[in-house]
Amino acid sequence: MNPAAGSGDLVARDARCLWHPYTQHATDGAPLAVVGARGATLTLADGREVIDAISAWWTCLHGHGEPRLLDAARRQGERLDHVAFAGATHEPAVALAEALLAAAPRGTPPLTRVFFSDDGSTAVEVALKIAFQAAAARGATGRRTFLALAGSYHGDTFGAMSVGDREPFFAPFAPLLFDVLRAPVDPAGFAAVFDRCHETLAAVIVEPLVQGAAGMRMHGVELLRTIAARCRAAGVPLIADEVFTGFGRTGALFACAKAGVAPDLLCVAKGLTSAAAPLAATLATEALFDAFRAPERRRMLAHGHSMTAHPIGCAVALESLALCRERDVPARLEAIGARIERALAPLRGHPHVRDLRRCGGIVAFDLAAPVPAATPSGGAAGGGYFTERAPRLRARALELGVLLRPLGTAIYACPPACTDDAQCDRIAAAMAALADVT
Ligand SMILES: Cc1ncc(COP(=O)(O)O)c(C=O)c1O
Predict the structure, then answer these.
(1) pLDDT tens digits for 328-348?
(2) Most buried among 88, 173, 204, 373, using CB within 10 Å?
(3) Which atom of ligand 1 is closest in space to residue 160's alpha carbon?
(4) By the 8 A CB rule, do 330 and 323 touch?
């Protein structure tokens, strides 16, 4: 088959029947026709090879087509594909729960329970529901709201949208979202808000160390320590949303561990299965679990999904966690991030580049708008998430053989742990080239 012809046909069929996520179909260009993936590389239908510098939306931890994960999926599928997890159990779910609890940040009280769901958003929904219903079950009926950080993103379902910042994504739904309290992203600012409202809180929710969708905004461990200490002292559950940061992305297995803090609820997804299957989990303390144990059946957590604890997803996640340890993925990602950051260092001082930053394997900088002669203020980051430059930025990176997907004018990379030195250098070169895209 002529691959170029195949690509055209696929894209034309796609245009007739598909609706893509986070895509403006009126103006965004045709989607990439992807026919294969191995390691850090995607193969396109026209024969081009492109480095996946965003790890398939931050999911692909080890690399594409990792044989150990595909093997684990096949073996598990042949044994047991799925069973309703209400009233049944199976080895992959139990083994994965044990492994996750052993790997989770250690605290007092420790995380002792695992509730499985499908993706990052559902992991967050489950955490919110657990915290809210547990407060009510304990008779703390005044604890009816959540405190979240400015700029936070926790997913696209309604509870997750509610705790997320309304901008840039959720403004159309604002009338339907429940109110939450919001604190600034600095220790003193957070403490001031928390001290005023903690008696009303069912929980605090935070993306530890990196606010991904907000544009890879990074904060130090001090903020996380302040949040954890305040929550602990006031008896307010802390939800750590490590959907993005978990499994090594920040250079530690969990971002919370890097700050030496432990949450009461921990949300994981994305890297949990390294993109080889969809799965998510919410880890909880025994005290939260106990709030639902009662003679009255109606006090249960009335929540579940068709695919909860899918055995194939669990088997893949168990193998992925083993790989994480065998290959020291956090250290590997740290080294990858450091190499890309070093290669980008000459950009410091570039008139269009602001705030080159890194946390583990995540490297980012902000693009300031080139200053048109007629604009007196100039120099401000141009256009926010919905910048018209987005398609041009993506196209330029692709010309250089790298898949980047800037968050508005935040240019970032977080490639998989298998990315080699030459690929890191190509990613850095593509990022650098975007500094001059107008
Ligand atoms: C911190 C965080 N929480 C939750 C989510 C939602 O995850 P999903 O897209 O798997 O629903 C994301 C997705 O980017 C995320 O970054």
Answers:
(1) 999 999 999 999 999 999 999
(2) 204
(3) 4
(4) no
